[in-house]
Design goal:
about 200 residues; alpha/beta; two-stranded antiparallel sheet; globular
């Protein structure tokens, strides 16, 4: 027991910046019950961005205030990364419908991040149906572990080029997505992880 206490104290002194198990694992989701909670929720302080759950019962939704915080981080980081104003980034997200669910989905075909074409019941954790509608699976109680930020990048690319959201990501078939976008997603998700969002 003394050795265990020594190792803990030694670790804290030697590596003071390591958080270890200090995360509180706060939940950023709410269980949906349409009798007391609307399926459609406007995200406050945004240009008419709405949350919608895939199902009315036995499903969950991200808390709207937490989605707003995640969007604030995304908009700020996108603005700085691509040297555009935050107001332009918000405008590129105007009227977006963010559908969420704990129920997984599969598609008949999809591209991975490197542009490789995958077929035959591909499991996905996010989809960009159009420039106005995305779907995100709630995998844990935290937004950083979802595909929300990834799908927001698809929306912005789609609204900029008007034709598609670059479904093959860093592949060569479609244009728009760059390594800079992939790095942005990782950076934003790390910020959200540290903030327990």
């Amino acid at each position: 027991m003394k050795l265990f206490k020594f190792l803990i104290i030694f670790g804290i002194v030697l590596f003071p910046g390591i958080k270890g198990c200090n995360h509180t694992n706060k939940s950023n989701i709410v269980k949906l019950d349409c009798s007391s909670f609307s399926r459609f929720t406007k995200v406050p302080g945004t240009p008419n961005i709405k949350l919608v759950s895939s199902r009315c019962s036995n499903d969950y939704q991200f808390k709207k205030e937490v989605v707003k915080s995640a969007l604030d981080v995304f908009v700020n980081e996108y603005s700085e990364s691509f040297d555009v104003s935050e107001s332009l980034v918000w405008e590129n997200l105007r009227d977006l419908k963010i559908e969420v669910s704990i129920i997984p989905r599969t598609v008949h075909a999809a591209f991975d991040i490197n542009g490789n074409f995958l077929e035959d019941q591909v499991a996905v954790n996010g989809l960009a149906f159009s420039q106005d509608h995305i779907w995100v699976e709630i995998k844990t109680s935290q937004i950083w572990s979802s595909a929300l930020i990834h799908e927001l990048v698809h929306v912005i690319i789609w609204r900029q080029n008007k034709v598609h959201g670059d479904p093959d990501h860093e592949g060569e078939k479609f244009s728009g997505w760059t390594q800079k976008h992939t790095k942005l997603i990782k950076r934003v998700n790390n910020i959200l992880l540290e903030a327990e969002i």
